[in-house]
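Can't paste images in this forum, so I'm doing it all in text. The chain is below; anyone willing to post the predicted structure tokens underneath?
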Amino acid sequence: MAAFEGAANPQRAIENGYYIEQPGRSLAETIAARIALRPSSTHILVGGIGSGKTTQLLVTRDRINEIGDIKAIYVDVSLYTDIFKIKPLSLMAITGLVLSELIGDSEGQDIEKSRALFHKLAYGFSENKDILGSAVNLNRVVRHRGVLVDKPDNPRAVFQAMTKLQEAATTAQKSITLLFDGLDRLDDAQIFSQLVTSDIQSISESGIGVVLVTPLIVAYSDYRGTIEQAVQSFEYQSCFDVFEDANAYNFFEKVIKTRAANDFIQEPAIQNLIVYSGGVLRDLISLTEAAIEEAYLLDSDKVYENHVEAAVIPFARAKSLGLSYKEREILWDLSEEGKFNPTTKEGIKLLAAHHIIEYRYPERRFLIHPVIQPLFQHEQITYEEEEEITDEDVPF
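Text version of the structure:
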């Protein structure tokens, strides 16, 4: 069970030897090579939820650190601020905090002042000020807003303080690269575009390289062109077409067999798990974990096809809950007529959650996730009939 824990930190899977190289050249290899050539360059990594972006980011960090003269640091943005309240200057503030931690207990009065100042700029502070002209000794409390809390009072000071910390941090390291994770949960492409064109460019100009995980909405928004022009590379982590690509299928098979004891999961069960995963890495892991649980509850020493089938039922039910009527219409169109245009908010949401899976190799195509595909193989309901629909009419 522990080997297939879907909610586990990907770092732990890597440390346990469960990481399997993707077929072909992985994004980790590609981005690490680009950073090696240009240490202060900026790179975007985009993909849907559960497509393996965090794992690729962690492997990228390890590959960069193997170079020797570049220090790569993985940064979970959600540990510093609320993702949904993020705004321009937020990533610069987080960069300053990371650099403060990197410097540690370095000696030097100027460094200590810069660290203290940056914490104030990031989180805000209060001070007592005398009231001028008062006949008695009076003062008032003045509150200064921090970048990660509210709109800052002095944006320029944030960049100046970060630059001083960067200079101190690079005295022991030739170069620094930050790998920001967590922003793929941000659902505002405009805010993300502002982060790239302001924060990321400023961080890069200070001599720091950046790799940034982004929300899938960015790949289909009107801001994509602006974002691509502001960075050195824009990489897409797509799902694996286990139906049309033999290498992708073999990759998923190896993921299961690396984590499971010999012959523990029977071959037909492995085949079903790969098919039901739809080529989504996280779904493969989660479904396998659920199938192992079903086998345990039925007092079985091995995982068979019937255990996989039992695990798929609640998985499909959970995946189909909360779909809006418009999202269902999109799924029906794709199922019945093979039509899908990923330009609407609903369509992008279905892609991000892998209700609809996008493959890029061996050819670009869209597929309804296999576990919910059977729910949409029936006569399409029109918008005019919407008011008459009852719970019994909807297959989920």
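The domain at 248-320 is CATH 1.10.8.60 (Helicase, Ruva Protein; domain 3). The longest strand covers residues 70-76.
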